[in-house]
Design brief:
heterodimer, A: about 400 residues, alpha+beta, 13 helices, about 15% strand, elongated, B: about 250 residues, alpha/beta, 6-stranded mixed β-sheet, 4-stranded antiparallel β-sheet, 7 helices, about 25% strand
């Protein structure tokens, strides 16, 4: 311990003696560590944002959409009539044991009017179960009920964007009547803000009305019983996989799709999408890390270079130390401590710079960043490892000097 | 029979010099007892510095044996020789060999850093050694703030701080003027006289060698004379008290 303190003091003194040189030597490490920390926090921030968006759709959610996403042969275009029907949704609810909730909807962009204000928004006819499947609470009023669906009530639940545009900011729309395609609807609830979806769509720019009412009064009756897509929730993450299988085989049966033919529907597993995006961001982070590590490596070579110079400059000092009884180990230790001090002071400065960098990116570029403690700690410790690794050769060179030759060195 | 402090037998040292070989020492045998004050003289290249390096365990002989306190030094590992340099031998060089940019007290402490004394004791001993060579109060001066004589005193304090039994001085006054040289030699003499430290001193000046009680003359790597009854030097009362509580 005493030896370490003395050695550290000697190292610090040696580094202080050549302030500019030490600072320049550290620069590689500083940039490397700062780059690792900034890059990882940007990567993690982006990943966390994507995860949050996917979670905002609903937990353990499956989406059944018409048409197939596999590309082979001729398929009906996405603009064609949906192949999914309300009866499919009802059957899924009834016959698939892994499914806990089913909601279906049809949507259309229409103009809505309140007083002298108008706003074009998506009107979505759906079922009361939609709220639970998408885990979307109301902040004012209530969601419409099963009874509203059965009696084709003209009630509406508004997204916050619609409220802001029709009623003005901070207004309470509950009980007011809005007109959708000239049909008056009573506003019964306001949905909690969900924000933008990962593809940039404002999820709050929506009006939810009972599916039956939508079919009869808003969307037109020519496609009765057709739905745009079906949201299915499974009890747990494990059930999602099972539910996918159950729904697929049920719809095969119901749509009479023979084996080997293209499905006229796709079951999308949001957990899988989440996992895929997680994997993608991990690959991204790894790439950034690799680039940053190269900077650390270059920094390490800089340390080695400067230490070799230092060993030459201080040959006489090494000789004197040997003459008064320093063992090879002591000399080795001294230069290693110097290398590690260089690299770890650099690492510390890099960590400070990296953390500020991440903050700056979040502040100026408004990118989500997430400071990762393992990245900060890991890159700092790695800078120490770089010091040991690249300091070892010069240190050993110093330790192996012949005392007499070192003493005579001019 | 009491083993002498230093016993060398048929010591030779050969340096390869390109194609040729330089025989720095050619079969030197020598014994130096504890408490002796020996001057080694000779022209440059006569092998006296090589002998000093071997005596100080900085170098190893090509052949022959060197026993220090009965230990065959040539057979020791580099680390074991480092320990001997640290504990048994104090070195004083012609060019002082102090660490520049390092204070006097830290220079003196240097050998202790590689020992195992507690830090407080290190500082106390270093202060003691500096005071013993008359540099008390100059602990924080750096070598470039000290005169040549003062620098050499720091070097002597460093050599003494671990209380060695053998003090080796390689032309310690070579860079000093005559009055300063006499002061330095006073220190050596009193160390030898009062603390029974064995002193081996390389010089090529008769006036310096007069301080020793035994003068060995080298030529071409061999001893040409070994006068144990050299004029010696008495009557000069040691002026400096060294190592209070002192080395034995």
């Amino acid at each position: 311990m005493k030896l370490f303190r003395m050695t550290l003091m000697t190292a610090l003194r040696a580094l202080r003696r050549n302030k500019l040189r030490s600072a320049l030597t550290m620069l590689g490490i500083i940039i490397g560590v700062a780059a690792v920390i900034t890059m990882v926090s940007i990567g993690e921030g982006a990943a966390a944002a994507v995860q949050a968006e996917i979670r905002s759709l609903g937990k353990n959610l499956l989406v059944v959409v018409p048409g197939a996403t596999t590309t082979s042969g001729v398929r009906s275009s996405s603009g064609g009539i949906s192949t999914l029907r309300t009866s499919d949704a009802v059957a899924i609810q009834k016959e698939c044991p892994s499914v806990t909730g089913v909601a279906y909807f049809r949507r259309k962009l229409v103009q809505v009017i309140y007083g002298d204000q108008n706003w074009s928004t998506v009107v979505q006819g759906t079922t009361p179960s939609y709220q639970r499947v998408r885990e979307w609470p109301t902040v004012a009023g209530t969601f419409f009920t099963q009874r509203d669906l059965e009696t084709t009530s003209t009630v509406a639940v508004l997204g916050q964007t619609v409220v802001d545009n029709l009623f003005g900011l901070g207004q309470d729309p509950i009980g007011a009547h809005i007109r959708i395609k000239h049909v008056p609807f009573r506003v019964v609830g306001v949905l909690e803000v969900k924000g933008q979806s990962s593809w940039g769509q404002d999820q709050d720019d929506v009006i939810l009305i009972p599916f039956s009412t939508a079919e009869r009064r808003v969307l037109g009756t020519e496609f009765l019983g057709i739905v745009d897509s079906i949201y299915v929730s499974a009890a747990s993450a494990d059930d999602v996989q099972r539910a996918t299988g159950e729904i697929t085989s049920l719809l095969h049966r119901r749509h009479r799709i023979r084996p080997g033919r293209n499905d006229d529907f796709t079951v999308k597993n949001l957990n899988e999408i989440a996992r895929a995006s997680q994997g993608a961001s991990r690959v991204m982070t790894m790439l950034l890390l690799a680039v940053a590590s190269i900077s650390l490596l270059v920094g390490g070579i800089g340390i080695m270079n400067i230490l070799l110079v230092s060993v030459t400059e201080r040959t006489r000092e090494i000789g004197i130390r040997m003459a008064v009884g320093a063992k090879n180990f002591h000399i080795l230790y001294q230069f290693l401590v110097e290398a590690v001090t260089l690299s770890m002071v650099g690492g510390l400065a890099g960590a400070v710079l990296g953390i500020s960098g991440a903050r700056a990116v979040a502040y100026f570029a408004a990118w989500p960043t997430l400071l990762s403690a393992p990245a900060v700690l890991g890159s700092f410790l790695f800078s120490g490892v770089v010091g040991v690794f690249f300091g070892f050769y010069p240190a050993r060179k110093a330790a192996r000097l012949d005392p007499i030759a070192a003493l005579r060195y001019e | 029979m009491v083993e002498p402090l230093i016993a060398i037998r048929e010591l030779s040292k050969v340096y390869p010099m390109g194609e040729a070989e330089v025989h720095a020492l050619r079969g030197v045998s020598l014994e130096i007892g504890a408490g002796e004050f020996v001057a080694v003289m000779g022209a440059s290249g006569s092998g006296k510095s090589t002998l000093m390096n071997i005596l100080g365990c900085l170098d190893r002989p090509t052949s022959g044996t060197y026993r220090l306190r009965g230990i065959d030094v040539a057979s020791l590992s580099p680390d074991e020789r480092a320990t001997i340099r640290n504990r048994e031998v104090g070195f004083v060089f012609q060019n002082f060999n102090l660490l520049s940019r390092t204070s006097a007290i830290e220079n003196v402490e240097l050998p202790l850093v590689y020992g195992d004394l507690p830090q407080r004791e290190q500082r106390r001993r270093a202060q003691e050694a500096l005071a013993a060579v008359g540099l008390g109060g100059r602990e924080d001066h750096h070598p470039n703030q000290l005169s040549g004589g003062q620098q050499q005193r720091v070097a002597i304090a460093r050599a003494l701080v671990n209380r060695p039994s053998l003090l080796l001085a390689d032309e310690p006054t070579g860079n000093l003027d005559t009055p300063t040289s006499m002061e330095i030699l006073d220190i050596f003499e009193s160390l030898n006289h009062e603390h029974a430290i064995t002193v081996v001193l390389v010089t090529h000046e008769e006036s310096i060698a007069r301080f020793a009680r035994r003068v060995i003359v080298f030529r071409d790597g061999q001893i040409v004379s070994d006068d144990a009854n050299a004029p010696g030097h008495a009557g000069r009362s040691p002026s400096i008290r060294l190592l209070r509580g002192g080395a034995q």
